[in-house]
Write a structure and sequence with these properties.
The protein has 684 residues and is mainly alpha-helical. It has 27 helices and 7 strands. The strands form 3 sheets. It has a 3-stranded mixed beta sheet with strand order 1-4-5. It is globular, with a radius of gyration of 42 Å.
């Protein structure tokens, strides 16, 4: 590339005088004779001219250049690389040989000429040599056409004319593949389909009974051959560099596929390749090592499985604490640790990866559909509890343990949960798996074992577990176990103390109050909603509506309404901080302004906590009512007018309980508070 500023024309070189034709030197003269330029000099000059053509500095070219696009599109599939900044772009084939503009806005020389498309010349076909003086091409074509006409006329004379000479169309000859019969061997003098087709009493075969057309036989597929072909294509795809989003992920999937196919050596080879291309994501190896361990356990190689798990355990510190892949790697490793009686290691590992919420719920859903081999995510969503899991990652381990390694390991994992809510969630998953297994095997449901597993829980959490297990029994068409579990759930709910509806107290009382944990009441509300879904499946619509009303009673006692909490939290904005401090100083009989300032901070935090609790109650209330209405809508008994009226009443409750419709002012100007029932009370 020649010098010069970008965007300006390069200065022209001084014009060289035209060389004159050299004259041969005389004998004995020392004058040199002008020689031709060497091949290297000619190549260098051609390359310089080519560079001048590729990178243009002309201003007119800047205006007429064809802009390149960053991504290929329809009609713009030709890939062009900028010679200045090596940025690739895409244009149509019409831009070949023309000035184009680079897609990089920071390119120093954005205008260059696109390379010409080199068209491949068709290779000449090898033809037999012809003797000199042979026929011309036109004569050969004429002879070929004449031969075609002669052959066609002969075929018509011997075949078509013979069949039409009797005045009746010839009967179609069934083929061996269509009729399923073998043709007659040559030399026997018999033709298939020609027996007894003439005579006064002979009947055509086509008029006897219409034969159904037979389909071609389905080719037999060898699973081993398909597996080998798929694995070979996976290796080929993992080696590809272009259009490959993640080579380490491809190697991980390939290693897991080889492990599932039983080829442990090749799976380990893929892990070695994964180490080379995935140095920044070493935890990708965990899934492959776990897949190898499962295969080794399946064939009784316990020592080999332990070595594989140790190789995966060595990478536990490289698992990130964020993202879907990190949570999946921790869950994958925790499951075999529990199976190998390393419960403490599994608990410590997964404790660092809790709290993923949405990502953890997705992992649980995928493991549900993989475990039962249904691959129906919609059906799995319908099996989710009405209240979301606190730690879905912990529940995911129990789901996989119950699906593949027995329910006893899942029970041990549930009992090692970090808190009561997670323990109840995991026990519910374990109990539902026990019910499905017993029903599938035709065995009685072990209700006594399920009740004994939840005896140590508080009454509200007992009711939550038993209600979810009852719903699983109803879905499995086990009506008698479902009714027994419903009775046990109602007994547990009767032991839950139901306080009065939550009312926000005055300023002094709110400052001094310590509110209880709302989790037990919300768990009882979720359990009552689960009972509503179960009663709807069993056709007991009236009882389902009563369960919903009881669930709303528990929710109203757990937290205030959103409107009331928002009004109290907005006092600082309406009245001002100085007015709040003055009121607290008077009510609490504080001596200094510093004490009033600290009291105002405490009071503001109390108001903010109440508002957050009210929002959580509102979200849970929406979820419970929506799931209950969905169950009533799908219930065949509730499809009557009574069921539709119940569903409409539930949705009407959703509309009437919205925050917009619950706010008003009294005649005295004091702000009123209202809950989801519509009853208003004046604020103190």
């Amino acid at each position: 590339m020649r010098g010069g500023k970008p965007g300006q024309a390069a200065p022209k070189a001084p014009r060289q005088p035209t060389p004159t034709k050299p004259t041969p030197s005389e004998p004995g003269s020392t004058r040199p004779v002008a020689s031709k330029p060497s091949a290297a000099q000619a190549k260098k000059k051609a390359k310089s001219e080519e560079d001048d053509e590729v990178i243009s500095f002309d201003g007119a070219a800047l205006r007429q250049a064809i802009p390149l696009s960053r991504k290929p599109a329809r009609g713009r599939m030709m890939r062009v690389v900028c010679p200045m900044c090596d940025t690739p772009g895409f244009a149509s084939e019409d831009a070949a040989g023309k000035d184009v503009k680079c897609v990089n806005p920071e390119c120093l020389v954005p205008i260059f000429k696109a390379p010409e498309i080199k068209k491949k010349e068709p290779e000449p076909k090898e033809e037999p040599e012809e003797p000199s003086g042979g026929l011309s091409g036109v004569a050969k074509v004429a002879i070929a056409l004449g031969a075609v006409v002669v052959v066609g006329g002969a075929g018509w004379f011997f075949f078509l004319r013979e069949g039409s000479s009797t005045g009746k169309p010839a009967a179609p000859q069934p083929t061996a593949q269509a009729s399923g019969q073998s043709t007659t061997e040559p030399g026997t003098g018999e033709q298939p389909g020609a027996a007894e087709t003439t005579g006064p009493q002979a009947k055509p075969e086509a008029k006897e009974e219409p034969k159904e057309p037979t389909t071609a036989p389905v080719p037999q597929i060898d699973p081993a051959e398909v597996t080998a072909s798929a694995l070979a294509k996976m290796v080929e795809a993992a080696r590809r560099r272009e259009n490959n989003r993640s080579k380490p992920f491809c190697r991980q999937l390939t290693a897991e596929a080889f492990a599932c196919a039983g080829n442990i050596e090749e799976a380990k080879h893929q892990i070695e390749q994964l180490r080379l291309v995935g140095k920044d994501v070493p935890y990708y190896q965990i899934g492959a090592w776990v897949a190898i361990a499962w295969n080794q356990l399946q064939f009784g190689d316990e020592e080999g499985a332990r070595q594989s798990i140790e190789a995966a355990w060595a990478l536990k510190d490289r698992i990130p604490t964020f993202g879907q892949t990190g949570a999946d790697a921790a869950i994958d490793l925790a499951v075999p640790l529990v199976v190998m009686d390393r419960l403490d290691d599994a608990r410590n590992l997964l404790t660092e990866h809790l709290g993923q919420s949405t990502r953890g719920e997705l992992s649980a859903l995928l493991r549900m559909v993989y475990g039962d081999r249904s691959y129906d995510v919609d059906e799995a969503v319908s099996r989710l509890p009405v209240a979301p899991w606190k730690h879905p990652e912990w529940v995911s381990v129990a789901i996989e343990l119950a699906a593949h390694r027995g329910t006893q390991k899942a029970l041990a994992w549930a009992q090692a949960a970090p808190d009561l809510a997670t323990q109840a969630d995991t026990l519910a998953v374990w109990g539902a798996a026990v019910v499905r297994k017993a029903v599938g095997e035709g065995q009685p449901v072990p209700i006594t074992d399920i009740r004994s597993a939840v005896e140590s829980l508080p009454p509200s959490f007992q009711a939550g577990v038993l209600a979810q297990v009852a719903y699983a029994a109803a879905r499995a068409d086990a009506q008698e176990p479902a009714e027994q579990l419903i009775r046990f759930t109602q007994e547990a709910l009767s032991r839950v103390s139901t306080p009065k509806e939550f009312v926000i107290p005055g300023m002094k009382e709110l400052y001094e109050a310590e509110f209880p944990d709302p989790a037990p009441l919300r768990t009882a509300a979720a359990a009552s909603t689960e009972l509503s879904r179960t009663h709807a499946l069993l056709g007991k619509t009236e009882q389902a509506v009563k369960d919903i009303q009881r669930a709303l009673t528990f929710l109203r006692a757990s937290a205030p309404s959103v409107v009331a909490a928002a009004l109290r939290d907005g006092e600082f904005k309406r009245r001002g901080r100085s007015a709040i401090e003055a009121s607290l100083r008077r009510l609490l009989e504080l001596e200094t302004r510093e004490q009033a300032r600290l009291a105002a901070n405490r009071y503001r935090k109390k108001c903010h906590d109440l508002l957050e609790s009210a929002k959580q109650r509102w979200q849970l209330q929406l979820r419970l009512l929506a799931r209950a209405a969905d169950s009533l809508e799908q219930d065949p008994v509730a499809s009557s007018s009574q069921g539709r009226a119940t569903a409409r009443a539930i949705f009407h409750h959703l509309a009437s309980a919205s925050p917009r419709s619950s706010l008003g002012r009294s005649r005295k100007g004091r702000v009123e508070q209202s809950d989801s029932t519509g009853r208003c009370r004046q604020s103190p």
